[in-house]
Design brief:
Layout lengths: L16 E5 L17 E11 L3 E12 L4 E5 H15 L8 E7 L1 H9 L4 H6 L1 E3 L2 E4 L28
Parallel strand pairs: 1-4, 1-7
Antiparallel strand pairs: 2-3, 2-5, 3-4, 5-6
Bound molecules: zinc ion (ZN).
Zinc ion binds next to loops.
């Protein structure tokens, strides 16, 4: 399960709006807000996994420069988490996690050589300006007084207990 965040951890200025896409079939070649063509931006994401793990994942996000919006695919991120955890900490696969923000690349590279503490890590962290998990409404014909129903995202196939 991905949690919603509500307090700031990073010591650097918040950066990027973030949308997590839980639908494996949607690729978002276009921005869901302004519909211009989305590019890509590879950035180290800092992810907190319960109970006490911090993981930096260098991940290629979709990016719309108009909206300053990064889009991550939940199933891809969970695939990387599953790979990282299934060897070393299989008991924590499927735990709640929180995508906290992006880490400065220089600090991320240094962290590959030498592990850093939580306090050191958040000194190089940009929280997101806004974080949300996307929900799509169903296409089709619906009664005029009814909002279209929301498509239920599929359950995680890999990152689960
Ligand atoms: Zn856009």
């Amino acid at each position: 399960m991905a949690k919603t965040k509500n307090k700031q951890f990073g010591q650097l200025a918040p950066k990027y709006n973030y949308s997590l896409n839980p639908y494996p079939n949607l690729k978002f070649s276009k921005c869901p807000i302004c519909e211009s063509k989305a590019g890509q931006r590879k950035l180290p994401l800092l992810i907190h996994v319960d109970p006490m793990h911090l993981i930096s994942l260098n991940y290629t996000n979709r990016y719309c420069s108009n909206c300053d919006l990064l889009i991550g695919h939940k199933h891809e991120i969970e695939h990387h988490l599953t790979q990282a955890f299934s060897q070393l900490m299989p008991q924590d696969v499927g735990n709640n996690y929180l995508i906290m923000g992006t880490v400065e690349k220089t600090a991320w590279r240094a962290g590959l050589k030498q592990s850093s503490s939580f306090d050191e890590t958040i000194q190089n962290l940009h929280d997101f300006k806004n974080f949300e998990e996307l929900r799509m409404t169903m296409a089709g014909w619906f009664h005029k007084d009814r909002d279209p129903p929301v498509m239920t995202p599929p359950l995680s196939t890999e990152w689960k207990k």
